[in-house]
Amino acid sequence: MQFKILNFCIALFFLSTAAMAQVTITGQVLDETAVGLPGVSVIEVGTVNGTVTDFNGNYELKVSEAAKVQYSFVGYQSITEAVAGRSVIEVQLKPDVVMIDEVVVVGYGAAKKEDLTSAIAIVETEEVAKIPVTSFEQALQGKTAGVTVIQSGAPGGAADVRIRGTGSINGSSPLYVVDGVINAPAPSPEDISSIQILKDAASCAIYGSRGANGVIIVTTKRGKKGDVKVSFKTVQGVQSVAKPLNLLNADEFITYWNTNSAVDKVYPNGSSITRPQRVDLAQNDPDNYYRNTSWLDELYGMGSFSTYNASVSSASEHGNHYFSFDHRDNNGIQKGSGFSQTSVQLNNEYKKGIFTVGENLNARFINRGDNSSRLETALRQSPLLEVYNPNSTGRHDRWAGNTELDNSNNPNPIASIEGRNVDHKEDWLTGSAYMEIEPMEGLKFRGNYNLMLQNTDVFVKEYARQEGTTGPSLPTTRANHDSKRVFNQQLEFTGSYARTWENHNFSALVGFTQEDNRTRALDAFADRFAVDDPYSLKGRLDDASMNVGGYYIENALRSVLGRVMYDYQGKYLFTANFRSDGTSNFQKGKRWNSYPSFSFGWRVSDESFMDSYDWVDLLKLRSGWGRIGRRVGAMGNNQLTLLNSANYIINGELVTGVTIGSIIDEDLTWETSTNTGVGMDLSILRSKFEFTVDYFHNLSDGMILATRIPSSSGMGSEHRSVIITNAGALKNTGLEISGTYNKFEGDFTYSLTTALTFERTKVTSLGGEPFLVGGQTQYYRDGLTRTEVGRNIGEFYGYVTDGIYQVEDTDIPVGKSPGDIRFKDLNGDGKIDAEDRTYIGSPMPDFTGSLTANFGYKGWDLSLFFYGVYGNKIFNHNRYHTETLSKSFNQSVDVLNAWTPDNPSNTMPRFTDQHTDNYDLASDRFIEDGSYLRLQNVSLGYTLPSKWLDRVQIDKCRIYATVQNAFTLTNFSGMDPEIYASDMLSRGINNAQYPLARTVALGFELGF
Fold first, then answer.
1. CB atoms within 10 A of CB 93
2. Is residue 263 within a helix (H) or strand (E), and if so which, with residue range?
3. For 385, phi and psi rounded to 5 degrees?
4. With b meaning 16 or more CB within 10 Å and e meaning fewer, what string describes 679-698?
5. Lowest mean pLDDT among 56-60, 551-555, 680-684
6. Nearest Cα to 401, choosing from 888, 760, 52?
7. What three-state secondary structure class fits 317?
8. Where are the domains of the chain?
9. I need a surface site. Which of 234, 577, 710, 810 has the fewest CB within 10 A?
10. Closest CA to 513 of 485, 532, 494
11. Which residues pair with 723 in a beta bridge?
């Protein structure tokens, strides 16, 4: 019996061995011209066993005798062959026409990528979708050359997106087109199928007055032919402050006081106790005066980030369907801040004969928390004070009003958050319905109706609370109610015709559009309520105040447009665009303007003299010229004059009246931008290397500015009365370089993509104005920036420091002391005043760059994304609060190195309780290098093998971990060198903005 069992086991072993026998197959993979194709993936189906062909297309691979082998390469149709006892398998791949003729959306139509003659960038949507952000604009940062994105740290906050630099002082935000809807909000990243960025006038002219700052075209997903597809994705993460600031704790604060007590001064009004007395109080009565509060720790904590996205799609020869549900939550790192959004995307298309009809619908519902930054007040608070009033358990002390330790009247940041109720809701509905008729091959007519609705309601209620006696007011309640309604509808009709004969390819498009916009807003404020009711402005006390305001804007835009594309033999390419826009915003006779563009391309690689350079896949030269326009605001008929108050003497008595403050130039018209550019596209070694370079030269003219009117006009002071007219001009030039390298080595694959942007802007006219002032803050009302002809927009303007006066110096001016800051007397008049100010830095970088590295090994994938900025300056306004060594505000730990006779520092001045020593002047003391290199995102994922998933009929299952804002290399001393500002003239000012968070998250993707 034992021998039978042994024989059976031996037989079973040999049968199993035979069933799993391996064979070695060799062969060659050829292209459509019978030339060996290198880099082809040769994979045993259902396994991770594989290899790639060598430079001549040869390969060798061990597989099981019953195996099937798949041969695949980018740009070619895949082939699967059964081994079937063969040891040599030779295959020939055919070009994948769909992939080679990749279609790119170009505005009111599409074109093959290889036929493009203008600067259009394609953003990989997979790269966008894998970054944990609340909006896709944030994920665009560094993805393509020529596009700059500066993020706001607030949850759901905006992003400042600029294409090819600054096009106007009045703003440089691009036009967004989502499924054909102008200015529609972007969909969720997971719902995006393609992103095209139109960067030059040659491509943007088809959008006329909307295209001066570039165009971002977003297309949402559609169903694909095959079985019904279901997908699910979720990301769960936590957020934290990426770089905290180092402020004095209670012990250090006392040390700071003690060290500088020798130069302490009594407050000017003489009513406050001296600083040494405060030291004694804090040390001798720690229960009441020595709280060691870290206000930044009280303000910032751990945030959370989560997204959920589910979609269902299907398609057939009769149409396609796509539905998705998306929800994302972001509880911010600042107490009380947050953002949540729920959205639904529905796309349907039906085909019957010559007719195609469809609709795209997106609905979203947004809730925002109290996202205003409280960093400034947290920086200033003394660590000796506590969050809650010790004399009233659980109640806030709004003004940190312990008068014995502090008389700064600095608001309690925690009280301002916890004592407010913010109910901010936004509802958006965007959609389009279309019909397309194709009566004959190549001829199409299309009609679109687009709709966008926005409802915003914001209720803000400040509840009554305990306040310190040094605060400016008694306990009160306040309420704000703001509402906004936006209605936008667009009607579009286009007709297109395309024909190919012999060596000629021709296509043409004509169209008409009509757009109507209406915006209605109402705002109301009231205070001193008898009851706490956050949703009512009723119940006010008799002596309460109430203000009501609002506005209504209505305008229309009507346009005709056209495009012609032609090429000969696919080598010589030509494109012309034209659009004429008319708007109700301007006076009659100035409402219409036309925008033409022309671009040319030469596919050099298709010439016969390039036949010997078979390693060159594509070499194309491009050039273009175009003129595009820009509308600014709702001017013209909507706003003729502004009024200022003025005093008059009537019958010997002073009477307050009004005077005209500003008027609109009756000849006011469009801003225009003329663009010239050249470029080159290069691809070699079967697309292993891809390289693109573009140079652009933009001239913006007729920028709308408010220029001063002489007082002789009778309109009042020339500093208050202005005329709004086309007066400004600027020039910006730049160079964009991008490149990609792909390499395949067996199971290991990787790709490297880089993008560099060099851009310069120079103001060439301000309509006679000597300069424009910007960057005004509460503490710098004269502004921190100037814009002047011959210079960049918004350069920092201030005093130049020259170290610190030392004891041994003999040139110390009267009124100054050793330890005070030395300022340069630039005009040599022997005194330091406003005439000694000069330009001290620019917030605009010399260049920006990015590097994306993707690695793959079997089922593993690793992605690294670096982004960097070089050459820009930052005005660190936060140091105004933490390094002026004055009053009772908390300070940076750096002040522990303040000047004393025994510590003759040349960087940190002496302690003083007065501002007369000018420590807080706008000077290069607060200017810092804003250059940085950041690991913006790192992701590591694993995709389960298909042989496991096929058993349970799952198409894809991937798990991954990702870190956003992983680390930053910079010399900037603040929390983050990426400074968001919505005002063109206030860029680069680090003024207590909501900081960018670091996000650590886990993700899961599943597809059926």
1. 20
2. none
3. -95, 160
4. bebbbbbbebbbbbbbbbeb
5. 56-60
6. 888
7. coil
8. 2-96, 99-223
9. 810
10. 494
11. 663, 707
Reference 157, options 133, 178, 131; nearest CA is 133
Strands 110-112 and 103-105: antiparallel
Distances, alpha carbon 163 to alpha carbons 53, 124, 659, 874, 921, in Å? 41, 17, 41, 21, 35
User: Regarding beta strands 847-857 and 616-630, do their DSSP bridges make them parallel or antiparallel, or are they unpaired?
Assistant: unpaired
Residue with tokens 């398998």: 89
Note whether 979 and 990 are within 8 A (CB): yes
Sole residue written with tokens 């500088």: 260
Using pLDDT thresholds of 50, 70 and 90, give the confidence band for residue 743: confident
Q: What is the 3-state secondary structure (H, E, C) of 437-485?
A: EEEECCEEEEEEEEEEEEEEEEEEEECCCCCCCCCCCCCCCEEEEEEEE
Q: Is 556 helix (H, G, I), strand (E, B) or coil?
A: strand
Mean pLDDT in residue range 636-658: 66
| Residue 757 near residue 738 (C-beta atoms within 8 A) | no
- CA separation for the pair 1005, 983 (Å, rounded): 39
Of 515, 513, 354, 491, nearest to 434 (Cα)?
Answer: 491
The pTM of the full predicted model, rounded to 2 decimals, is 0.85
Token duo for residue 19: 């069933």
Which residues contact residue 537 at a Cβ distance below 8 angstroms, ignoring those fewer than 6 apart? Answer: 479, 481, 524, 526, 546
Name residues whose C-beta falls within 8 Å of residue 651's C-beta, 6 or more positions apart in sequence: none
Per DSSP, the three-state class of 167 is coil
pLDDT tens digits for range 855-898: 998 889 999 999 999 999 999 999 988 988 866 688 999 998 88
CATH architecture of 2-96: Sandwich (2.60)
Centroid of chain to Cα 757: 16
Q: And the tokens for 810?
A: 């003999």
Please enumerate in sequence order all residues whose Cβ is within 8 A of that of 469, keeping only pairs 6 or more positions apart, or say none.
Answer: 401, 403
Q: Can you name the CATH fold of 99-223?
A: Ferric Hydroxamate Uptake Protein; Chain A, domain 1 (2.170.130)
Name the residue type at position 790. Answer: G
Q: Are 321 and 231 in contact (CB under 8 A)?
A: no
Identify whether the C-beta of residue 371 lies closer than 8 Å to the C-beta of residue 994. Answer: yes
Whether 565 contacts 494, CB under 8 Å: no
Q: How close are the terminal C-alpha atoms of the chain, in Å?
A: 51
773 membership: H or E segment, kind and range: strand 772-774
Long-range CB contacts (within 8 A, 24+) of 270-273: 272/403, 272/407, 273/404
For the chain, how big is the Rg over CA atoms in Å?
33
Please give the Cα distance from 93 to 944 (Å, whole number): 28
DSSP string, 95-119: B-HHHHT-EEE-SSSEEEGGG--S-
* 250-259 helix and 275-284 helix, angle to the nearest 10 degrees: 150
| C-beta separation of 443 from 361 below 8 A | no
Chain centroid, CA 104 distance in Å: 23
Looking only at the bridges linking them, the beta strands covering 443-462 and 303-316 are unpaired
Compute the distance between CA of residue 424 and CA of residue 422 in angstroms, rounded to an integer.
6
Half-sphere exposure in the Cβ direction for 773 (13 Å, CA): 9
Q: Which residue's entry shows tokens 């522990």?
A: 896
Q: Which two tokens stand for residue 595?
A: 């925008």
Tell me which residue of 520, 523, 524 sits closest to 538, measured CA to CA.
Answer: 524
- Cα 902 from Cα 898, distance rounded (Å): 10
For the sheet containing 192-198, what is the strand order? 120-123, 192-198, 215-220, 175-178, 181-182
Summarised one tens digit per residue, pLDDT across range 764-814 is 999 888 999 999 988 888 899 999 999 999 999 999 999 999 999 988 888
| Assigned token pair, 945 | 């093998």
Helix (H, G, I), strand (E, B) or coil at 970: strand
- Select from 448, 522, 520, 523 the least CA-distant residue to 487: 520
What lies within 8 Å, CB to CB, of 768 at 6+ separation is 707, 727
